[in-house]
Amino acid sequence: MARLSGETALGLAWMVAFAASLAVLFIGEVLSQMPCLLCWYQRAFMFPLAIVLGLGLWWRDPGVGRYGIALATGGAAVALWHVLLYLGWIPEPIQPCTATGPSCTGENQVILGLPIPALSLVAFALVALFSTLSLKEAAE
Protein backbone atom coordinates (compact mmCIF):
# COMPACT_ATOMS: atom_id res chain seq x y z
CA MET A 1 0.00 0.00 0.00
CA ALA A 2 1.39 3.38 -0.98
CA ARG A 3 2.14 5.83 1.82
CA LEU A 4 1.18 9.48 1.71
CA SER A 5 4.01 11.95 2.03
CA GLY A 6 3.69 14.45 4.84
CA GLU A 7 3.18 17.28 2.39
CA THR A 8 0.49 15.35 0.48
CA ALA A 9 -1.36 14.51 3.70
CA LEU A 10 -1.16 18.15 4.76
CA GLY A 11 -2.43 19.22 1.35
CA LEU A 12 -5.40 16.87 1.69
CA ALA A 13 -6.16 18.23 5.17
CA TRP A 14 -6.08 21.78 3.78
CA MET A 15 -8.31 20.86 0.81
CA VAL A 16 -10.95 19.37 3.12
CA ALA A 17 -10.87 22.43 5.41
CA PHE A 18 -10.93 24.84 2.47
CA ALA A 19 -13.80 23.02 0.72
CA ALA A 20 -15.82 22.85 3.95
CA SER A 21 -15.24 26.57 4.54
CA LEU A 22 -16.36 27.43 1.02
CA ALA A 23 -19.40 25.17 1.35
CA VAL A 24 -20.67 26.83 4.52
CA LEU A 25 -20.01 30.27 3.07
CA PHE A 26 -22.08 29.26 0.03
CA ILE A 27 -24.89 27.97 2.24
CA GLY A 28 -24.90 31.13 4.34
CA GLU A 29 -24.13 33.87 1.83
CA VAL A 30 -25.57 32.55 -1.45
CA LEU A 31 -28.46 30.44 -0.17
CA SER A 32 -29.09 32.90 2.70
CA GLN A 33 -29.54 30.13 5.28
CA MET A 34 -28.58 31.38 8.71
CA PRO A 35 -26.62 28.81 10.71
CA CYS A 36 -27.68 27.70 14.15
CA LEU A 37 -25.50 28.45 17.16
CA LEU A 38 -23.71 25.08 17.06
CA CYS A 39 -22.95 25.59 13.36
CA TRP A 40 -21.35 28.92 14.24
CA TYR A 41 -19.13 27.21 16.81
CA GLN A 42 -18.07 24.65 14.21
CA ARG A 43 -17.22 27.44 11.77
CA ALA A 44 -15.07 29.03 14.47
CA PHE A 45 -12.88 25.91 14.25
CA MET A 46 -13.08 25.25 10.48
CA PHE A 47 -12.23 28.71 9.13
CA PRO A 48 -8.89 28.95 10.98
CA LEU A 49 -8.05 25.42 9.81
CA ALA A 50 -8.18 26.52 6.18
CA ILE A 51 -5.90 29.46 6.93
CA VAL A 52 -3.42 27.76 9.28
CA LEU A 53 -3.02 24.63 7.15
CA GLY A 54 -2.74 26.71 3.99
CA LEU A 55 0.02 28.83 5.52
CA GLY A 56 1.76 25.68 6.75
CA LEU A 57 1.78 24.36 3.21
CA TRP A 58 2.98 27.68 1.82
CA TRP A 59 5.83 27.91 4.32
CA ARG A 60 6.53 24.16 4.11
CA ASP A 61 6.18 23.79 7.87
CA PRO A 62 6.09 20.04 8.61
CA GLY A 63 4.84 20.62 12.17
CA VAL A 64 1.70 22.58 11.29
CA GLY A 65 -0.27 19.33 11.50
CA ARG A 66 -0.23 19.74 15.31
CA TYR A 67 -2.45 22.78 14.98
CA GLY A 68 -4.66 20.96 12.50
CA ILE A 69 -5.18 18.16 15.01
CA ALA A 70 -5.97 20.58 17.84
CA LEU A 71 -8.47 22.67 15.87
CA ALA A 72 -10.08 19.65 14.20
CA THR A 73 -10.51 17.88 17.54
CA GLY A 74 -12.26 20.91 19.03
CA GLY A 75 -14.51 21.26 16.01
CA ALA A 76 -15.25 17.54 15.96
CA ALA A 77 -16.35 17.68 19.60
CA VAL A 78 -18.89 20.40 18.79
CA ALA A 79 -19.98 18.56 15.64
CA LEU A 80 -20.41 15.29 17.56
CA TRP A 81 -22.60 17.06 20.13
CA HIS A 82 -24.61 18.54 17.26
CA VAL A 83 -25.04 15.13 15.60
CA LEU A 84 -26.15 13.55 18.88
CA LEU A 85 -28.73 16.32 19.28
CA TYR A 86 -29.85 15.81 15.70
CA LEU A 87 -30.30 12.06 16.28
CA GLY A 88 -32.20 12.70 19.49
CA TRP A 89 -29.66 10.82 21.62
CA ILE A 90 -29.29 13.92 23.76
CA PRO A 91 -32.75 14.99 24.94
CA GLU A 92 -32.46 18.67 24.10
CA PRO A 93 -34.35 20.23 21.20
CA ILE A 94 -32.33 21.93 18.48
CA GLN A 95 -33.55 25.50 18.19
CA PRO A 96 -33.19 27.68 15.09
CA CYS A 97 -31.23 30.93 15.42
CA THR A 98 -34.32 33.08 15.02
CA ALA A 99 -38.04 32.55 14.88
CA THR A 100 -37.84 32.53 11.07
CA GLY A 101 -34.43 30.82 10.78
CA PRO A 102 -33.67 27.28 9.65
CA SER A 103 -33.83 24.27 11.86
CA CYS A 104 -31.04 21.72 11.73
CA THR A 105 -33.73 19.08 11.43
CA GLY A 106 -35.16 20.53 8.21
CA GLU A 107 -34.96 18.59 4.95
CA ASN A 108 -33.04 21.42 3.29
CA GLN A 109 -30.22 20.75 5.77
CA VAL A 110 -29.43 17.32 4.26
CA ILE A 111 -26.72 16.96 1.60
CA LEU A 112 -25.79 13.63 0.00
CA GLY A 113 -28.12 11.92 2.46
CA LEU A 114 -26.30 13.32 5.50
CA PRO A 115 -27.33 16.23 7.71
CA ILE A 116 -24.93 19.18 7.70
CA PRO A 117 -23.73 18.47 11.28
CA ALA A 118 -22.69 14.94 10.23
CA LEU A 119 -20.86 16.31 7.18
CA SER A 120 -19.06 18.70 9.48
CA LEU A 121 -18.03 15.81 11.74
CA VAL A 122 -16.71 13.89 8.73
CA ALA A 123 -14.74 16.93 7.56
CA PHE A 124 -13.17 17.46 11.00
CA ALA A 125 -12.31 13.75 11.24
CA LEU A 126 -10.63 13.83 7.83
CA VAL A 127 -8.65 16.96 8.69
CA ALA A 128 -7.50 15.37 11.96
CA LEU A 129 -6.55 12.13 10.17
CA PHE A 130 -4.60 13.84 7.40
CA SER A 131 -2.96 16.22 9.88
CA THR A 132 -1.85 13.23 11.95
CA LEU A 133 -0.49 11.49 8.85
CA SER A 134 1.43 14.65 7.93
CA LEU A 135 3.24 14.44 11.27
CA LYS A 136 4.19 10.78 10.90
CA GLU A 137 6.83 11.59 8.28
CA ALA A 138 8.20 14.51 10.30
CA ALA A 139 8.67 12.20 13.32
CA GLU A 140 10.64 9.61 11.33
UniProtKB/TrEMBL annotation:
The keyword Magnesium does not apply. Signal peptide: none annotated. The chain crosses the membrane at residues 9-28, 40-59, 71-90, 110-135. One of its GO terms (biological process) is protein folding. Belongs to the DsbB family. BdbC subfamily. SUPFAM superfamilies: DsbB-like. It comes from the Bacteria. Pfam families: DsbB. Its main location: membrane. It is found in: Membrane. Keywords: Chaperone, Disulfide bond, Electron transport, Membrane, Oxidoreductase, Redox-active center, Transmembrane, Transmembrane helix, Transport. This is Disulfide bond formation protein DsbB. It is a multi-pass membrane protein.
